[in-house]
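Is this the right way to post structure tokens for a design question? Let me know if I should format differently. Anyway, here goes:
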């Protein structure tokens, strides 16, 4: 944490320096123009103005890059905070339960409860490590398999069941499906990773009780549109493009209630682009909540008559 704060303080100096140099450049340019205009040195005036303008453009570009660096640094600091918390919490919990099992004689009911909690903490660790590994090998996900025709109905139900199991929810009471039969042609693991993350995210940020709806519709030119709709608080308009950036999580790690690393939607966005698709987020019409819309190339099945 101290390293992240030190890094943020170090980056603040170049930004201040950049603003100061831009101000000095503008001041000198005005002085140059006024001085040469009085002396009628029009050739020198034009050359000087061009040089100062180029310097100003360079400084502006430098400042723009530094601001991007600061924002990335802040997202990385949030990411480090969240990952540290996500790793330490289950490890501390597992250590506590193991020490209790070693030091005390417990009833069979208590022992079973402890084992169940320890299993949940291990699943939490496994989910975090899986996400970190996915980010490191996004280009290689599914490379060992060949593209094939994937029926979206069965794949989405599989992802929905997995997301509900992760959050300890009943799939029948949490997710409803509305399908038009459709296929996508892709590597199964890539498509599964996209929708597993989206459905997990939908349940995590849904209301209480969580209600998620999955729709599949045919769009123009054979495109398939999948909408994942939740009953949560929604995504503010100013965050709807930023949430797909690496490490981005709204708010502070100190006040945030939901766990996570800020990697899930970045993984989704990257893989959807690899599939030559698009992803966007919208308001839920007439109700609170979000609609994550994924558009992928595909085709609808032809029904036999």
């Amino acid at each position: 944490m101290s390293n992240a704060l030190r890094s943020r303080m170090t980056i603040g100096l170049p930004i201040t320096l950049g603003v100061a140099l831009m101000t000095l450049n503008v001041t000198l340019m005005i002085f140059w123009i006024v001085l040469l205009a009085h002396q009628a040195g029009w050739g020198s005036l034009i050359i000087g103005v061009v040089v100062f303008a180029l310097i100003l453009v360079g400084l502006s570009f430098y400042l723009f890059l530094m601001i991007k660096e600061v924002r990335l640094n802040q997202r990385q600091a949030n990411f480090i905070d969240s990952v540290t918390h996500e790793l330490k919490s289950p490890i501390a919990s597992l250590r506590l339960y193991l020490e209790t099992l070693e030091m005390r004689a417990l009833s069979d009911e208590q022992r079973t409860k402890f084992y169940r909690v320890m299993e949940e903490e291990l699943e939490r660790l496994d989910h975090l490590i899986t996400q970190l590994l996915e980010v490191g090998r996004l280009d290689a996900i599914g490379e060992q398999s060949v593209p094939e025709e994937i029926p979206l109905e069965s794949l989405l139900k599989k992802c929905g069941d997995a997301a509900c199991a992760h959050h300890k929810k009943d799939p029948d009471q949490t997710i409803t499906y509305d399908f038009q039969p459709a296929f996508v042609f892709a590597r199964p693991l890539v498509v599964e990773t996209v929708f597993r993350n989206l459905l997990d995210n939908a349940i995590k940020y849904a209301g209480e009780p969580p209600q998620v709806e999955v729709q599949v519709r045919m769009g123009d030119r054979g495109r398939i549109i999948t909408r994942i709709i939740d009953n949560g608080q929604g995504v503010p308009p100013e965050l709807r493009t930023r949430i797909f950036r690496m490490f981005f999580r709204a708010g502070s790690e100190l006040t945030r209630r939901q766990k996570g690393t800020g990697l899930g939607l970045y993984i989704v966005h990257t893989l959807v682009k690899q599939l030559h698709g698009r992803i966007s987020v919208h308001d839920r019409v007439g109700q609170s909540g979000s609609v994550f819309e994924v558009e992928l190339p595909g085709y609808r099945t032809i029904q036999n008559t």
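Format looks fine. Someone answered above. Worth noting: The chain is about 60% helix and 15% strand. The longest helix spans residues 42-103.
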